[in-house]
Amino acid sequence: MTLTRALTTSSVLAIFAGPALADLTADDVLADQLSQMSMYGLSVQTQGESRSGNVLTVEGLTAATTIPGEDVSIVFAMGGATYTEQGDGSVLVTYPDEIPLVVQVSLPDEDDVKVEMTIRQSGMQSLVTGSPEQFRYEFSGDSASVADFTIEGPEDVDDVEMDIVVDMGGFLGVMNIAGGDVRPYDLDMTLGAIEMLLDASGLEGDEAFSMSFNVSDVVAKYAGTLAQQNLMDSFATTIANGNTVLGNFNHGTASYDFDVETPDGGVTGNATMGSGTFDFAMNENGIEYGGVTNDTTITVSGSAIPFPPMTFEMAEYGGRVKMPVVPGEDPQDFAIVLSLIDIVVDPFLWSMIDPGEQLPRDPATVIIDASGEVVMLQDVFDPAFAETMGQNGPPGQINAFDLNEIKVSLAGAELTGDGALTFNNEGALPVPAGIVNLALSGGNTLLDTLVSMGLLPEEQAMGARMMSGLFARPGTGPDTLVSTIEMKEDGSILANGQRIK
User: Fold this and answer.
1) Which value, to the nearest 10 degrees, does the dihedral of the CA atoms of residues 79, 85, 86, 89 take?
2) From CA 131, how far away is CA 153, in angstroms rounded?
3) How far is CA 178 from CA 11, 30, 181, 187, in A?
4) Backbone torsion region of residue 205, taken as left when φ is above 0, otherwise alpha when ψ lies between -120 and 50, otherwise beta
5) Strands 254-262 and 244-251: what pairing?
6) β pairing state of 125-131 and 113-122
7) CB under 8 Å to 141, separation ≥6 — which residues?
8) Within 13 A of 468's CA, how many CA atoms are on the CB side?
9) What secondary structure letter does DSSP report for 182?
10) What DSSP element (H or E) covers 403?
11) Among 426, 262, 248, 396, CA closest to 323
12) Vertex 154: Cα angle to 151 and 159 (nearest 5)
């Protein structure tokens, strides 16, 4: 998890790139890049460092780290760069057309795992200005790709033949980063397109898998503070050390294709998407991420599926997760949101379920929006937490839960609701108190239609109607039911004023 953060865009730019205030030397820029890498818990060394006049050349870099308590070490070896002092206080960093990258993982009692690839690029460079207290990297490139992927290691790894290719075209950006132990930074970057291909064969028997993904017009902006962190640090420890980030991505059209082959047949799929957004944050308030994608179309077919090709559409899908990660005594906010808007199901699937077209085929929608307050008592992302789980009591307590919105519409029926609950945590289990409001329209009509179609037995429909009579009352409109569920502090529950517990 922390290793992934160590390879995020900012660290990659620090390796391959990196406010004009004073003269910079090539040594200043190299030292800054090595400093950025070392703050991710890496021990970094240059290979083949030499100087000729105003040009500093580095043949390569190695970066090593270990997983504490696991007797596992990881070593990265990559090609270097050329640092040219421009004579105006700036330094131009350029890179060879081909940059080798090798990752070697040493495991206890097993053969090492070795991953090799080649980064091919055209026109990739960084113009660095500023001072050792404040660097500004203006980076650009015509294209960059990752190819020639190979993996060696234990027998189960060697059995997998895999080819991975990543292509990026037309990237441009600026990163500002200050010096110090805790380093504020901001980054603004655009990418014309990103294409990825994964092709795996020899997984097991006759199985194979391939996928491709491409996205256009990527714009990324984020800012934060960079401080010391280590490979197995939890989010809470990373934040406590001074690491924060707040950012967002926007993209244009995108597509995804996959092909799976098994002894029982194959499955092929394709998805196209319109524009979308994604934002993320990590700070003392916890972690939060979410986004929205528009105009999605998915097609699935294959010999392993006993149907003709089927297509599904969705006008919008999105979601959001917010959760605290830093233990403390004060309540902290959480949230979870899921939205699937205007889902259109393939007509063939409808015809299998409803050949007589008795059910309305309006697009379906699912929305769940909930939030609340919790008190985090333990660091659940600490590796030691898994070893002591349950021994030190619950990891946290819930103080409040708000159902901001629930909406499910399908086949002519629609369920909506909202509510708010607080919790008494003085006992062995939290006791909720509050009100939840629910409303259902078209429910009885849907039951009648399902019975007439033979999809639902009459006695089950009757049981559902009797149950709804206990919890709901007729609404103001035709075929509507409403319900107010009230939970009391003494543990009793009322439905529309009638006690049911």
Assistant:
1) 130
2) 44
3) 14, 15, 10, 12
4) left
5) unpaired
6) unpaired
7) 121, 122, 123, 124, 125, 168, 170, 171, 172
8) 21
9) S
10) strand 396-410
11) 396
12) 65
164, amino acid identity = I
Distance, in Å, from the CA atom of 82 to the CA atom of 30, rounded to the nearest integer, reads 10
Alpha-carbon distance 114 to 101, whole Å? 11
Q: Can you say whether residue 454 is alpha, beta or left, with left for phi > 0 and alpha for psi between -120 and 50 degrees?
A: left
The reported pTM is 0.87
Instruction: Name, in order, each residue with C-beta under 8 angstroms of 454's C-beta and a sequence gap of 6 or more.
Output: none
What would the DSSP string read from start to end of 462-498?
HHHHHHHHHH-EE-SSTTEEEEEEEE-TTS-EEETTE
**Residue 233 to residues 41, 63, 144, 228, 240: CA-CA distances in angstroms?**
10, 18, 31, 10, 10
Secondary structure (DSSP) of 331-385: -EEEEEEEEEEEEE--HHHHHHH-TT--S--PPEEEEEEEEEEEEE-S-TTSHHH
The CA distance from 172 to 454, in Å, is 61
Phi and psi, residue 61, nearest 5°: -135, 145
The Cα 29–Cα 58 span in angstroms is 12
Nearest to 187 by CA among 18, 6, 39, 26: 18
Cα distances (angstroms) measured from residue 406 to each of 77, 300, 400 = 51, 29, 17
Burial class (CB in 10 A: 0-12, 13-18, 19+), 26: buried
Q: What angle, rounded to 10 degrees, do the helices at 9-16 and 26-38 form?
A: 150
Question: Burial level of 85, CB count in 10 A (0-12/13-18/19+)?
Answer: buried
Residue labelled with tokens 């240059």: 46
Spell out the per-residue pLDDT of the chain, length 501, in tens: 333 333 333 443 343 444 434 689 999 999 999 999 999 999 999 999 999 999 999 999 999 998 876 788 999 999 999 999 999 999 999 999 999 999 999 988 788 899 999 999 999 999 999 999 999 999 999 999 998 988 887 765 555 677 889 999 889 999 999 999 999 999 999 999 999 999 886 556 667 889 999 999 999 999 999 999 988 899 999 999 999 999 999 999 999 999 998 888 899 999 999 999 999 999 999 999 999 999 999 999 998 888 899 999 999 999 999 999 999 999 999 999 999 999 999 999 999 999 999 999 999 999 999 999 999 999 999 888 877 776 777 889 999 999 999 999 999 999 999 999 999 998 888 999 999 999 999 999 999 999 999 989 999 999 988 888 888 999 999 999 999 999 999 889 999 988 888
Region for residue 41 given its phi and psi (left: phi exceeds 0; alpha: psi -120 to 50; beta: otherwise): left
- Cα–Cα distance for residue pair 92/139, rounded to 1 Å: 10
Q: Where are the beta strands (DSSP E) in 227-305?
A: 244-251, 254-262, 265-273, 276-283, 286-301
